[in-house]
Structure to design on (360 residues):
């Protein structure tokens, strides 16, 4: 919206021309979302407390978590509000990718909101039954996959790019729809599994979003993309605005979510953020790199799957508790130690993922 306004004002004051630069708008998007999160955060927390929208802790969880019962949840709404407003303010409304990413983010946020609502209203940790949660994730994930496939303008937009290799692109055809669906739904659940400790999920999300924002800018640049031998996707650079908003909103939320947390994001935030990372990675054609950079999310999800399969097949558990961050807690690691160490691991994985842009 402000892109159009500043473009109009440029004819009167030349200085407004700086807002036409994608890099500048991305930085302003970060600051705008951060400002919105910091300003609205205290108000939202007070409102959640007044409405008694508090966290329900599982009886089977670590004993150290019992004290967290009643902490305001559904704080992910603060993230979504900041992301959407900042993106609409500084993004190009003519970009189809902006609308697709916002639609996916909000639709998965809606699923998370209803799940959180059931938990709070029924005073239970169960929420929306898993089969229904997966059903609606599949509906929205598949719809996004079909839209992206039908609107693809070039073969590179539906090919699987293999990192570390020059010009290795596997044509997927209709298989692109299946891959996109898997990436979006898997990442949505993976981030949700990771969101179990104060600040554990949000900072890795910010780190991965930062890297994806850089990748989006390079993929959408007609000169940088060929130089780095990565696919050129026209218009994808605009997603840097969305990623910037995600960075700012995430940092603003971390201000209140850092240990000991004043508010939890809930499924409304976790499901939406995971889906957002997934759909951005698909558009910029870096799904495999996303799995590297978001390795923490992958490990958390795999630990849950492995735990369930092992118990059903053998009657034995691999971990003391899943997701794996609870396993470390039950080993005696203090919560802050678990959080910071997993943050460090994510930083390393993000750097490894970014190295694939040059190591080809």
């Amino acid at each position: 919206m402000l892109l159009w306004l500043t473009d109009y004002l440029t004819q009167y004051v030349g200085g407004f021309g700086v807002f036409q630069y994608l890099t500048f708008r991305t930085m302003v998007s970060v600051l705008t979302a951060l400002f919105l999160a910091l300003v609205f955060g205290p108000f939202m927390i007070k409102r959640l407390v007044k409405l008694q929208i508090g966290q329900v802790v599982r009886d089977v969880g670590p004993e150290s978590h019992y004290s967290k019962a009643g902490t305001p949840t559904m704080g992910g709404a603060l993230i979504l509000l900041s992301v959407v407003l900042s993106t609409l303010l500084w993004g190009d409304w003519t970009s189809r990718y902006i609308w697709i990413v916002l639609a996916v983010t909000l639709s998965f946020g809606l699923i998370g909101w209803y799940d959180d609502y059931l938990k709070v209203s029924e005073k239970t940790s169960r929420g929306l039954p898993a089969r229904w949660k997966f059903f609606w994730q599949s509906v929205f994930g598949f719809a996004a996959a079909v839209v992206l496939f039908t609107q693809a303008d070039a073969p590179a937009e539906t090919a699987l790019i293999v990192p570390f290799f020059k010009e290795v692109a596997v044509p997927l055809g209709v298989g692109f729809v299946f891959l996109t669906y898997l990436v979006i739904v898997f990442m949505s659940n993976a981030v949700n599994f990771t969101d179990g400790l104060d600040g554990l999920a949000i900072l890795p999300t910010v780190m991965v979003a930062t890297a994806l924002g850089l990748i989006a800018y390079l993929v959408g640049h007609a000169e940088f993309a060929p130089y780095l031998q990565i696919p050129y996707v026209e218009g994808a650079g605009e997603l840097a605005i969305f990623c910037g908003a995600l960075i700012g909103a995430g940092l603003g939320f971390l201000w209140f979510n850092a240990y000991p947390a004043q508010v939890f994001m809930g499924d409304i935030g976790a499901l939406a953020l995971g889906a957002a990372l997934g759909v951005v990675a698909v558009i910029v054609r870096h799904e495999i790199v996303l799995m590297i950079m978001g390795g923490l999310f992958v490990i958390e999800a795999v630990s849950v799957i492995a735990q369930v399969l092992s118990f059903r097949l053998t009657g034995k558990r691999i971990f003391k508790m899943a997701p794996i961050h609870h396993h470390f807690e039950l080993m005696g690691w203090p919560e802050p130690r678990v959080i910071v160490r997993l943050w460090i691991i994510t930083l390393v994985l993000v750097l490894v993922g970014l190295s694939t842009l040059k190591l080809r």
In short: The first helix runs from residue 2 to 9. The chain has one domain: 22-160+170-291. The beta strands are 159-161, 169-171. The two ends are 39 Å apart (CA to CA).
